[in-house]
Amino acid sequence: xxxxxxxxxxxxxxxxxxxxxxxxxxxxxxxxxxxxxxxxxxxxxxxxxxxxxxxxxxxxxxxxxxxxxxxxxxxxxxxxxxxxxxxxxxxxxxxxxxxxxxxxxxxxxxxxxxxxxxxxxxxxxxxxxxxxxxxxxxxxxxxxxxxxxxxxxxxxxxxxxxxxxxxxxxxxxxxxxxxxxxxxxxxxxxxxxxxxxxxxxxxxxxxxxxxxxxxxxxxxxxxxxxxxxxxxxxxxxxxxxxxxxxxxxxxxxxxxxxxxxxxxxxxxxxxxxxxxxxxxxxxxxxxxxxxxxxxxxxxxxxxxxxxxxxxxxxxxxxxxxxxxxxxxxxxxxxxxxxxxxxxxxxxxxxxxxxxxxxxxxxxxxxxxxxxxxxxxxxxxxxxxxxxxxxxxxxxxxxxxxxxxxxxxxxxxxxxxxxxx
Length: 420
Hints:
By secondary structure, the protein is an alpha+beta fold.
């Protein structure tokens, strides 16, 4: 296995393309820091979610994304967030790499035995070895750390034969493709659930006794003073705390936090959006603070993120709140999720003037949901089933990510091999 300098087998370019749109430049889509940071690969499926911007002809020529390249995060507030890689899995006509990132392009004009395969390079850059190299070679302190072009080029990589590289890279990319597929399925499940929610709880066109849409078919509506809107006759309002089991997180002591996975996983506010924990604790804590599958979790500081949880082993930290469906209750977690999201966004806008927005106990206790009647022809079963499917796909993603992390160092150092 050869030992080579990355700059000898790949070209490295630092992007300076910002998020602005300028009249004298061409319209493009921008692959940003967050797109690279949160994805193993950049694919055409992500196109609609990429930011519109503009770029000069020379920047487009240098930073247009092509299949086989690898993008990395170049600078951030912490050392741990630099050097994070994403493989460019497709050719793009108008997507360029944005500011705070670097583009690495394997060289094709060198002997085959010296070439590096893009998917294999992406795998290398996800190893702890690469992360340590980038962390040790980052410059800056306090506010921002950055990687120079030379720091990236000077990283030493181990190069098996091109055939071996292809086997390793393709195998890990197959795992990532399955992860991406699950994400796409879940996006469609969430969209379907939102559509059902809008029909049932906004338009009130849930199926009546004849299977026809209730309100559109002349179903009687009555004014509800608490909700300040008309709702189906026989329905009512219900306070969030009466509809769901609400629990605030435990104030874990900072000195017990650790990165060692043999301890209890803890979800903190910064973890809620991704739906996974980044911290563990050795502190003893009551089991009532442990989350369950299908719980909803809300962060009460900052951006007030809400997410549906998919694990049974994570403990809830302070300034996070858990919502759980009560036995026999017709309010589902997805109904609560879609009803609360716009409320949280509105609260977020109100608190934007302060340094950090805070969601209070009073805010939550003032929130009311539409409560379906137990006597009407109504069943929340579709939303319950969609929730179960979302959770199952997220669990599968979690298992695949764990498998990928386990196999990665073993494949990189040759402890295991992949047969054709």
